[in-house]
């Protein structure tokens, strides 16, 4: 059988046919970022979110377990007492920040959190030009993300231009979507 394969270049022909198949198959080109955006699956680990309960109270009780579990020690939590009802307990985070430059998006902080306050989100456009802007503070982490948690992933959506105080941003238009494959 091996001699037969060698004489008739069977493996060579198999390889060539595979290459040829890809030459004539439909190509997948994503016109990112100006025209199209990729919506990752729900299990994707992008920028973290700090969450609230149904009454809008902060779920973070500043226990620092996420900071302890973080292998790169990129989470800073400074707790404070607050009885104004901002959080679910009288202890909230005065400072909560994540250094995204050091973060490896492993998700261990999410696993360690006893109140489901910190979750890995799906925002992935995190590039910036300074080390300072790579630090996500509490305000940024509490802000709603562009892709809602319940929105199913695995889609390509249209991009739309949006002007705001910081300039022009290209945002995903979740109403127009198509499957990636
Ligand atoms: S994802 Fe991993 S590295 Fe990033 S903050 Fe959480 S535990 Fe730390
Ligand atoms: S995010 Fe969770 S684990 Fe981290 S300090 Fe807040 S409650 Fe504790």
- Which architecture name of the domain at 48-122 and 133-142 does CATH use? 2-Layer Sandwich
Structural class: alpha+beta
- CATH topology annotation of the domain at 48-122 and 133-142: Alpha-Beta Plaits
- Estimate the global geometry from the Cα principal axes: elongated
Give the number of DSSP strands.
8
Task: Count helical runs.
Answer: 5
Report the radius of gyration as a whole number of Å: 23 Å
Widest sheet, order of strands: 1-7-8
The end-to-end span amounts to: 38 Å
Taking pLDDT < 50 over at least 5 consecutive residues as the criterion, the unreliable ranges are: none
Structure, explained:
The protein is elongated and about 80 Å long. It has helices at 2-7, 10-24, 65-69, 108-112, 138-142, and strands at residues 36-39, 48-50, 75-81, 91-99, 118-120, 135-136, 155-164, 167-179. It is built from five helices and eight strands. Strand 7 (155-164) and strand 8 (167-179) form a beta hairpin. The chain is 20% helix and 28% strand. It has 181 residues and is an alpha+beta fold. The chain has a domain at 48-122 and 133-142: Alpha-Beta Plaits. The strands form three sheets. Strands 1-7-8 form a three-stranded antiparallel sheet, with no helix packed on it. Strands 3-4-6 form a three-stranded antiparallel sheet. A two-stranded antiparallel sheet has the order 2-5. It binds iron/sulfur cluster (SF4) (2 copies).
Q: How do you describe this structure in short?
A:
This protein is an alpha+beta fold and 181 residues long. It has 5 helices and 8 strands.
